[in-house]
């Protein structure tokens, strides 16, 4: 299956007491950021660290909670 979509993952997204997480399936970063802003309802004050995963191979990741 051929796809041009990628998984965009931001860790450390809009941190407050702990870091947040944001993700989007999109063709490019601009589209992904627009989707996140729409879902959030306003532009995030801090994006955090971006990781981009291809959707044509297996991948996994996780973010543990702080405390």
Throw out a few tags for this protein.
alpha+beta, 67 residues, 3-stranded antiparallel β-sheet
SS element count, helices = 1
The Cα radius of gyration reads 13 Å
Order of helices and strands: EEHE
Report, as a whole number of angstroms, the end-to-end distance: 41 Å
Q: Roughly what is the average pLDDT, rounded to an integer? A: 90
Strand order of the largest sheet: 2-1-3
Main structural class: alpha+beta
| Strand residues, percent | 25-35%
User: What gross morphology would you assign?
Assistant: flat
Q: Tell me roughly what share of residues is in helical segments.
A: 10-25%
Describe, in plain words, how this protein is organized in 3D.
The chain has 67 residues and is α+β, with helices and mostly antiparallel strands. The protein has one domain (6-54). Helices cover 18% and strands 31% of the residues. The chain is built from one helix and three strands. It has one helix spanning 29-40; strands at 6-13, 20-26, 49-54. A three-stranded antiparallel β-sheet has the order 2-1-3, covered by helices on one side. The longest helix is centred in the middle third of the chain and has 12 residues, at 29-40. The chain is flat and about 40 Å long. The mean pLDDT is 90.
Walk me through the topology.
Elements: E1 6-13, E2 20-26, H1 29-40, E3 49-54
Antiparallel strand pairs: 1-2, 1-3
